[in-house]
User: Fold this.
Amino acid sequence: MKTHQLIVPTLNELKQQSAAQLTQLAEDIRQFLISNISATGGHIGANLSVVELTVAIHALFDSPADKVIFDTGHQGYTHKILTGRVENFATLNQYRGMNRFVARDESEHDAIDASHAGTSLSIASGYAKALKLTSPANYVVSLIGDGSMVEGMAFEGLNYCAEDKDSKLVIVLNDNEMAIAKSVGGMRNLTAGENWQSNSRAFFEGMGFAYLLVEDGHDMPTLLEQLAAAKQLARPVIVHVKTEKGKGLACAKDHPYKMHFSMPFDAATGKGAAATVVGRTYAVVAAEALKQKMATDDDVFAMTPATPYASSLDECLALFPERALDVGMAEQQAVGMACGLALGGKKPVVCMQTTFMQRAYDQLIHDACYMDLPVTVFGVRAGFAGYDGATHHGIYDIPYLRSFPNMQLVYPASSTALTELIEKRLDNPQGPMVILYPYEPIPAPEPDAGLIEPCGLSVPVQGRDGYLVCLGNRLVAAYELKALLEAQGKDYGIICVQSIKPFPAERFVELVAPTKHLITLEESVLNGGFGSLVLETLADANLSMQVLRSGIDDKFVYPGSKDECSAECGMMPGQIIEQIAQQWPNYLGVNK
Assistant:
């Protein structure tokens, strides 16, 4: 597909242009985004809503001396275009290509690294205080959506931002009445419906902010006028801007998420649009099992913090509107509400991406675990999570979750095991449980996971020389590594562990005691992860053997496919063979 070409003025040139010229530039940028993002895939809906707004901000403020902070970063594409990265768009959604979000290593104009919602106001309050002391002429502009505003951290930040009454802080509320799906709750009641203008003004002025309103966020002259007025106030101010998510893209109009994100698609027809990876995934399997339980058990509730597509919950939301709930972009609310439902005798299931689950750390440990409540979490995207930001990888879950008392932590060995687990769990849930499963499509055929024993592990293949001990998302790699070891004269079995906590220690020790070598495979950080659990088990049993742990060192991992990330971390089977040769000299190629 031929992509749209674009001539971009420098930031200095931008400041000399008339409102009419800036309006035309915004339209050119919109067409560039539609043409290019339809070819590469990316966050298209939110970016189309802020084209004029971002142009106006850069026309009036002096980045990078003035700090422009984008909450989440979903809406940073026009900013990237205006700050010299137009040529990078061809590399979007490629390994080590242009970041989907704002990223400080890309440009001095990216004031923060952002890929999670709700962080901008707290960071902006600190940045503004620092600039007041060191660079008092400069401003901080925080651009946050109405969907992100419901995050607990955003409300905490908003509360404090009003306290520093002489800081040059401009908070731009990008209000398109959408988070990823439609906004819900009190914030939406405040900014939509009858009298939203007076209600919003009363709310923000009541908190202590100056309040300015742009009812058409795509009208360049009004944007320029109100943002200029905000600069003149030189105090914390809310510029409330109404925009349209997906503006200019016809297929976004009736899309449930206004084309928030899509894989490559036909811009004219919308054909091929997909909000997540194509194919049968564990999220699809889990949603099907959940739907069946909801159809037969009125006590089962499904909840999601603004990401129904990631957990394939759209059908549940349509079929069970009273029990399938989108609570907005608020993970703490989702888990806290689930605890309340559990106390009320219900069977709540919170469906969320594990990268966002960590935001509800306190609710998981203090509320769900401490009260030992039957709250179930479906943790989608555990392991490598594709081309979103580095912090989207679900590779930190095992260390912190297995430290929680009363927590049950499970990684199903197969799609069939996942279905069976959900059916059994929701028949009679006891205590909190997190069920982790990966992002990528289920391989066809699935690798043989063997018969899962009641204790929570399986032995699909026996071995003479040692065992490859893995979780379900590394079972394919385990079979590939087994074949490479056979070529080196080594006969390794495979143990696939489904129950991480409680860990089947007695059965595991019984299996591995006759061997001298173990290799653990995990798509997780090694510090405190699955391999650490194995080492702890061996130490507690006073078993001494050679163990090689394959996983992620103490680092953040660049966005990429499963294989690209695995290769970066030295986790491909061929790389593990090299590590074995280094760690156990004179071992490979010797038939014992």
About this structure: The chain has 22 helices and 17 strands.
